[in-house]
Amino acid sequence: MTDPAPSSADPAGAEHFDVAVIGTGSGNTFLDERYAHLKVALLEEGVFGGTCLNVGCIPTKMFVYAADVAETARGAARYGVDAHVDGVRRADMVGRIFGRIDPISAGGRKYRVEDCDNVTVFEGHARFVAPRTLDTGTGRIVTADQIVLATGSRPIIPDAIARSGVDYLTNEDAMRLEAAPEHIIIVGTGFIAAEFAHIFSGLGSRVSIIGRSGRMLRHLDDEISAHFTGLAGRRWDLHLSSPVRSARRRTDGTGAEVELDDGTRLSGDALLVATGRAPNADLIGAAAGGIDLTADGRVQVDEYQRTTADGVFALGDVCSPHQLKHVANHEARVVGDNLLAERAAGGRPAELRAADHRFVPSAVFTHPQIAAVGLTEAQARAQHANVTVKVQRYADVAYGWAMEDDEGLCKVIADRDTGALLGGHIIGAQASTLIQPLIQALSFGLGAAEMAHGQYWIHPALTEVVENALLGLEL
């Protein structure tokens, strides 16, 4: 159903629901058969499926894989294979990728609108106008016993660019370009910037990167960040430690010209802003709903994903500092369980499930891939008195020889006194997969020595880089 007529049973015109969910990304994932007996309002102002499906994780990785294929062909000579890239059919890529994604998004909307009798879809910008009372943005007001905020985040645009009037791209529209720019300027040095730099350069564009930080991916372990910055400088034109002072259209009316604080001027066919994403907590009428925000603008939640307003929960980018889809999905499962637990308790204290944010892994699908879990070396030394660290090169294991890899590193960090693994950081091919044994060890309390010696490691698989790093720790 969509946007129902006013209920004659409610003289105020507001319709009451058992549960209202704002956002159809991860917020739409827990509404399973357990909720079939409840009256649910689902509110969405954009495209069904959220950031990950439509403009984030999934389409970017489909482009990343194509860029990986192109890079592999260009580098094949080192293996005695003569190969080259004849061309990149970007329009075909766009059609292949969004020809799969758009129907999934449309199908998700159709399912909720037409096939879920207990769900009413409101398509507009929802915001609180009173505690547990929402203006749906469709001309209707609804109330609910329980409300879930899953409103995600949006791109941050630096003031110098926002006020310039120059045309710019973000992750939300850059992938729809059917013609690749010859030269693209990317503003930002984080996850999004690094991934799009790989996509565009791998598919044939010249890339310039501008950042206020002196390093790429500065949130990572210092050694990994510095190593990646060095590798990035070989592939891309880096302008670090100097933010954008001004921007304008080129004199021919296309592309953009930017001036940096150090006086450097750059001219490109396209300008991509990738300076991070801001939680949409400021767009929901939080004060009217009795919802507190954190100092950095997120919805404040406790370990059960409850906000400061009774009956209101939150999940994903609107409340999480991690801004990762796997975190949002985990929080959605927690919220789904806790909503039902509270209802079953009938006003009595409920036994709630806490979210587990102890060991949140992350990966950057750039070139080479990067993955991390646990503490950085600096964090470990700040928190533990006796730390041991081992950095293992891909080039020192047999599969690394096969790959002729002189870039990859695996870094593991442990407490020398207890043998506890504290962190793992990998930069190189398949990093997002190779990190998984370290995630598992941290999550289940497996010590570094026990992990290294207590199982078989397939020879000569690339996982030996993790094994040898663990064996090299001084425990």
From TrEMBL:
Cofactor(s) listed in the protein's UniProt record: FAD
Descriptive protein name: Mycothione reductase
Keyword Cytoplasm: no
Domain (FAD/NAD(P)-binding) ranges: 17-329
Keywords annotated in UniProt: Disulfide bond, FAD, Flavoprotein, NAD, Oxidoreductase, Redox-active center
Domain (Pyridine nucleotide-disulphide oxidoreductase dimerisation): residue spans on this chain: 360-469
Annotated NCBIfam families: mycothione_red, PRK07846.1
